[in-house]
């Protein structure tokens, strides 16, 4: 009697295992898509929070906007990009010249654009 019950349980477990394997094979693509989406959403949550202008992004944007691009590095970058724009336009690569002109203008307009887009205050000290 006990052997019959254990045999029935074993058969039912084997059938359940076969059904589970078939179900996984049938829906494996959807399950992998769902699993990947969950991983991406959890992994990119901190990146998405950087758009609020708080925390580490706020500090990095302040340093980049007020201490790097508006001083000697920004002037050097603008001068080099301007010279390269002239050289590439002489050689006939006008698309490259426009890209370099945008880099030159971007070094001067970066602090204003970032402060408008991410609501960063003028002093960058939190006030």
In short:
The chain is an all-alpha fold and 127 residues long. It has helices spanning 2-26, 28-43, 45-49, 56-68, 72-91, 94-117.
What features would you describe in this structure?
This protein has 127 residues and is mainly α. The protein has two domains: 42 residues; 68 residues, no CATH class. Helices cover 81% and strands 0% of the residues. It contains six helices and no strands. α4 packs across α6 and α5 runs antiparallel to α6. It starts with a helix and ends in a 10-residue tail after the last helix. The mean pLDDT is 77.
Task: Spell out the blueprint of helices and strands.
Elements: H1 2-26, H2 28-43, H3 45-49, H4 56-68, H5 72-91, H6 94-117
Helix pairs in contact: 4-6, 5-6
**Low confidence ranges:** none
Q: What radius of gyration results from the CA coordinates?
A: 30 Å
Mean pLDDT, rounded to whole units?
77
Q: What is the count of DSSP helices, taking H or I runs of 4+ residues?
A: 6
Q: What is the rounded distance between the termini?
A: 81 Å
**Percent range for β-strand residues:** under 5%
Q: Tell me how many strands there are.
A: 0
| Share of residues in helices | over 70%
Structural class, by secondary structure, is mainly alpha
Sheet having the most strands: none
Tertiary shape = elongated
């Amino acid at each position: 009697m006990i052997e019959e019950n254990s045999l029935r349980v074993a058969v039912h477990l084997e059938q359940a295992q076969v059904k589970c394997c078939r179900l996984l094979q049938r829906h494996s693509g959807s399950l992998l898509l769902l699993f990947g989406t969950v991983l991406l959403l959890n992994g990119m949550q901190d990146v998405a929070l950087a758009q609020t202008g708080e925390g580490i992004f706020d500090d990095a944007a302040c340093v980049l906007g007020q201490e790097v691009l508006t001083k000697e590095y920004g002037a050097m970058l603008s001068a080099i990009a301007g010279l390269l724009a002239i050289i590439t336009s002489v050689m006939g690569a006008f698309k490259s010249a426009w890209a370099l002109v945008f880099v030159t203008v971007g070094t001067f307009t970066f602090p204003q654009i970032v402060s408008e887009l991410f609501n960063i205050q003028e002093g960058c000290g939190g006030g």
